């Protein structure tokens, strides 16, 4: 009797443990046949600035419901048509969305596409994966980007901000292969977006053209089997030396990180530290050169320095980012001789805190850079503040590198892990790691509950002298919560 009771007890406990894990996202593991992908393009301060000619507003979506009987004879029902994807302030005679601002038009278009792609579900509806593109050029003479959320003045082009001249902050061309079935019985589903920031280039040829920027994202899956595989390509050129491409799981409502408009996305539940893990398979085929800051994981959030939640007021909201860079060429700039590159302290997984001046114990090699919010009133010197122009508001950035201190959270502990030729399926304890990281708050304020509205994978190819190519695939993505 006792043995039976014990056995049931153990089984029951096991079932409970097993059942306490669930997914925070609409498409756990990327296994849903119905396609839900959107793409967005940003300029240096996460706006549009100016639409590319004949492209419409840079928000598009590919959403398809796939109908089939026992995985045979699939038919594909597209929910967003080409005329909807081409909607733009400059190109659209119908004027469906009511605004005179190209920036707000893009934000409204995202909500509109979200309404077409919306999947009603419990505990909440969801819309799409978001592919994010960003052009890092900044024309300082045009003063298009605010400085820490306040209106900026024009100033002569400094060397740290690339810009070849007027129009350098342009949006790319955006072309679309609508998802359809290929192969035997049309059971291989495939679609993609591609384009170039070099608007005079033929986007179809841009990948093979000398010194011409290019991006593409394509997705592929076998009906009723496995995961979608997202294949990503990004190529820089001398005119566009600083480009970004990420796959994002953004919150399905509210503001997502770095973006001061309401968004749509995939994270039905916004994951909260320390209780979440992120799982995915990453296969990096080409790294993108020595300055490619490939983010194994990039997490974004927002709170004010006094711990209040963000409310869209760009003069006091602060974007918070943390990223692990896995390109082995990227060095730790944080060192005992460069304390301004380090966060004030490190917290070990057992809770012990070590100050950055404690050279015997501080893990300098675990940090690439720390950049404090430019509007913080109580920073510990020495300190470097974040680029004031590359967000609609102030930002704080903490970039970490593979190191034994992160092993506890399932992150790489050595340079080269997960890099080119070492594809892996990661289960990262992003929740516990992000709880332990240093982020600024005014002294005496209640520590915020850290919630992460954007969870991203991809690369930022930072200002390079020659063109570079990054190529990688992402599949099996999930955010696991209790
Ligand atoms: C788009 O379709 C063309 C023609 O089938 C193909 O050659 C190209 O690789 C596709 N690109 C993407 C990004 O899907
Ligand atoms: C390719 O572009 C680079 C940079 O503009 C230039 O130096 C090089 O001569 C070009 N090569 C060819 C084959 O056109
Ligand atoms: C916590 O971990 C650090 C690093 O491994 C170690 O130096 C320290 O002694 C530990 N503290 C406690 C209280 O165990």
Structure description:
The chain is mostly beta strands and 482 residues long. The chain has one domain (27-481). The protein has helices spanning 2-19, 82-85, 102-117, 430-436; strands at residues 22-23, 35-42, 59-69, 72-78, 129-135, 175-182, 188-195, 214-222, 225-235, 243-250, 277-287, 292-302, 318-325, 345-347, 353-355, 367-371, 394-400, 424-428, 454-461, 469-481. The structure holds 2-acetamido-2-deoxy-beta-D-glucopyranose (3 copies).
SSE diagram, text form:
Blueprint lengths: L1 H18 L2 E2 L11 E8 L16 E11 L2 E7 L3 H4 L16 H16 L11 E7 L39 E8 L5 E8 L18 E9 L2 E11 L7 E8 L26 E11 L4 E11 L15 E8 L19 E3 L5 E3 L11 E5 L22 E7 L23 E5 L1 H7 L17 E8 L7 E13 L1
Parallel strand pairs: 2-5, 13-17
Antiparallel strand pairs: 1-20, 2-3, 3-4, 5-10, 6-7, 7-8, 8-9, 9-20, 10-19, 11-18, 11-20, 12-13, 12-19, 14-15, 16-17
One 2-acetamido-2-deoxy-beta-D-glucopyranose (NAG) binds next to strand 7 and strand 8.
